[in-house]
Fold this sequence. Notes:
This protein is an alpha+beta fold. The protein has two domains: 4-142, N-terminal domain of MutM-like DNA repair proteins (Alpha-Beta Barrel), CATH 3.20.190; 155-276, Helicase, Ruva Protein, domain 3. It is 23% helix and 23% strand. The protein has helices at 4-18, 139-142, 155-164, 169-174, 184-194, 205-224, and strands at residues 22-28, 34-35, 43-51, 54-59, 63-68, 73-77, 90-97, 114-120, 126-131, 265-269, 272-276. The protein has a nine-stranded mixed sheet. It is globular, with a radius of gyration of 20 Å. The relative contact order is 0.15. Bound molecules: zinc ion (ZN). Residues 257, 259-260, 262, 277, 279-280 line the site of zinc ion.
Amino acid sequence: MPxxxxxxxxxxxxxxxxQGRWISSVSAQPQxxxxxxxxxxxxxxxxxxxxxxxxxxxxxxxxELVAHLGMTGSFRFRGEADGWRPDAYVRATxxxxxxxxxxxxxxxxxxxxxVLDFRDVRRFGTLAVVPAGDYRGLVTLAALGxxxxxxxxxxxxxxxxxxxxxxAVKPWLLTQRPVAGVGNIYADEALWRARINxxxxxxxxxxxTALWTAIREVLSEAIEREGTTFRDYRMVNxxxxxxxxxxxxxxxxxxxxRRCGTALRKVVLGGxxxxxxxxxxxx
Length: 283
Ligand SMILES: [Zn+2]
């Protein structure tokens, strides 16, 4: 499932290609997690930001296009050098007009038109057009914690957020409320790095600061490597991320811990597979 580094890698490729373009038409299959997509037609994309695992396209006219890749979502431009052609898993298609063309129903119909597909095998992806900043009905986005790589992510407030919860630390991270964008992969990686047991319910100041640092490090390093690809995650150009070879905890059950040599253990915690070192991360 794409997490912050994967979504950021998509944003870095998609943003420059969307900025300033008119969305001349939208077609979409009816999907549970699609909402009001047709409202994007006739609007210009002013910019593309990221919040946690969400992409937020600022449209003129006070609208916002909210996108979440879910488990298997990807954006691909049609007819590019990477050879992408639409298949049965394309759930939505945006036709983009020339940035210099006038808006309207015919913009982008001729030369300069670009076709952007949203492909999603498992159909957990979200696409919604909302009044800018109105995230009612987008529960996770509305309650999202601070951006981990911004100054909003503060070690003192992070410690307070961990102390407020009675949940085990890992499932609490996955709620996105103490910090945005951390999913199963980077939670396991950060907890291993900070030597914190994923079941821990009390995380003291020193250890929460170590976790704060570890979260920023593992996410920054993964962004540099354009994310982690196991099966489905692809960037807009169709390429995989390079971070999978650098994982030390997630997906490494049974292998020797790189710090102490103990075999890493996999358990199910909060319904999610969780891998940790029973020695370095003991309770
Ligand atoms: Zn260890």
